[in-house]
Amino acid sequence: MAPTLAVTPVNDISLWARGSGLEIVLLVTGAAIVTRLATWTGGLITTRIDAQAHDLTGIIHTEAAKHRHAVAQVVTWAVLVLVYCVAAVLVVQRLGVPLSGFVAPATVVGVAVGFGAQRILQDVLAGFFMVAERQYGFGDLVRFNVSGVTDPVVGTVEEVTLRITRVRTADGEVVTTPNGQIIQVTNLSRDWARAVVDVPVPATADVAHVSGVLARIGTDAFADPEMRGLLLDPPAVMGVDSIDIDQFKIRVVARTLPGRQFEVGRALRARISIALLREGISMPADVDTATPTSS
C-alpha cells in the first residue's frame, strides 16, 4: 500500500502538468505574445500617422491625425487590459478554482471596492468623452486646470489613455494627470494659434508714429522666409490697448501655426525692441506678452 500511495500523487501532478499546467503556460505565453503584438501594432500605427501628418517643420497640422493618434493609443491600452483580464480568468479556471464560489464574496468586495474605485471610473469616463469629443490629441499644446492644483499645467500632449493624459512642459518635465481630475482644457494649438504682444511705450511718444513702426515690423516679419513659415498672415497692430500714467500699451497680434505662438512672440519682441531703439523711442525694461490663445 505504501508504494501505491507514494506514486499516486506523483502521477496526479504529472497528469496535471501535462494537462492544465501546460494550458496555463500556453495561456501566459499567448497573453505575453498578444500584448507584445498589440503594443508593436499600436506603435507602428502611431508612427505612420505621425509620418503622414507632419510637414517640413515637424508640426502635426491636421486635427484628424491628432485624433487618430489618440484613438490608437486608447485602443492599444484597452486591448492590453482586456487580454490581461481574460488570461487571468482562464488561468484561475485551469487551477481548479470554481469561479461560481466567488460570486457572493465578489459582490460584497465589489461594493466595498466600488467606493474606492469611483475615481478610476471617473477617469475612464472622462477619457472616453475626451476622445469621443476630440477635445485634444497627441501633439497638441494644452493648458489644464486640475482639481486641487492652483497653477495650471501647460505642455505638449505625449500620451493619451482612457485613464491618464501625459504632457511634457516647456521645462522638459513630464506631468501625468488623471483624466477625471481635469476641470478645464484650453487647447492652444487647435487649427491655428495667436501670438499677442503688448508693447509699452512712453506717454510722450507719438501713437501714430509708433503704430506705423509696428506695422512695418509686421510686414517685414511676414516677408522674412523664416518667419513666413510660422505665420498665417502679417502681424496686425490692434491699437492702444491700455493707458497708464507714464506709458500706454499698443497691442500687436499674429496668427501662427499651431503651437508656434511662443516662438513667434519671442521673435516679434526682439524685432520690436531693435526697431524702436533705432527710432529713438525708449521702452520700459519689459515688453509684456499676453497669454497666447487659439482663437
Can you offer a commentary on this structure?
- This protein is of the alpha+beta class.
- Among the domains are: 96 residues; 86 residues, Alpha-Beta Plaits.
- Helix content is 52%, strand content 20%.
- The strands form 2 sheets. Strands 4-3-2-1-5 form a 5-stranded antiparallel beta sheet. Strands 6-8-7 form a 3-stranded antiparallel beta sheet.
- A hairpin with a 5-residue loop joins strand 3 and strand 4.
- Helix 1 runs antiparallel to helix 2 and helix 5 crosses helix 7.
- The protein is elongated and about 100 Å long.
- 22% of the residues are buried.
* SS-based class: alpha+beta
Percent of sequence in beta strands: 15-25%
Give the uncertain stretches in residue-range form: 56-60
- Helix fraction bin: 40-55%
Could you give the order of strands across the largest sheet?
Answer: 4-3-2-1-5
Shape: elongated
Largest sheet: 5 strands, antiparallel
Order of helices and strands: HHHHEEEEEEHHEEH
Count of helical stretches? 7
Number of strands: 8
> What is the average of the pLDDT values?
78
Cα-atom radius of gyration: 30 Å
Distance between the termini: 88 Å
